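Z., the sequence and structure:
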Amino acid sequence: MASYTTFSILLLLIGLTSCYKPVILFHGILSGSENMVLLEETIKLFHPGTKVYNCGKFPYWNSLESSWRQVRELKKYLEEINALHHEGVHFIGYSQGGLLGRAAIQSYPQHNIKNFISLSSPQAGQYGDSFLRLIFPNLVAKEAFELFYSRIGQHTSIGGYWNDPFNQELYFKFSKFLPYINNEIFSLNSTNFKNGISKLNKMILIGGPNDGVITPWESSHFGFYNKSLSVVPLYERDIYINDEIGLKTLDKAGKLILIAKSHVNHLCWHTNPWIIREVILPHLD
């Protein structure tokens, strides 16, 4: 009887430690995999047996390399991990890492990413002084287009998603990243970009009004400024109305989840265990 009980417990433990899909983590700008360790440990603590891949590519100053260069390398990384886990994996990208991760998924429509979690990421772009001061202390938002909408500026990751509402003509002329992955500009990859998103089981977009870095914070939900600096929410923007990258498709199928949480600073989304338990863990089934 004792041996039968022990065997039953072992079977239960095996079941508990094998029911969670692997998780890929990708860090934000001017940081590295070390900054994602608390998130990794929290996932393993509450979801025992979870295999976590904490991607260390493009750490710290290397995170300023061009968006497309990072996306290409991240795509290769996803291909390698996907080949090991035919059951599928989840992806969590923090800040810039969520935007680049989304682009890598779009560039790899054969992926087996199940749930994509964008953790306070500038999915509709970035425009604001608070963010710039972290990297370019003497640069202000209203003048940043002179740097970012240039050949040199487009060799920086930020230049790839800087979205100046007052200089949209230059944005579409010079930006080689964001308007393409958002299918604002049609390209040979536009169909793949949409298929990569539509294939997801769930897309979870997380952000909040007290973030303090992502500007506007609604960019984490694909909302963005108009020329009056009023925020146009996702559901009123062409990217959703015309289903340009598959967001409407996901939404109509109940697969698009928007989470807005107040009183969370940008640096706390991935470092506060209570926040992680509340907004991330429920989506790592």
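The chain has one domain: 20-283. The domain at 20-283 is CATH 3.40.50.1820 (Rossmann fold).

Let me know what you think.
H.
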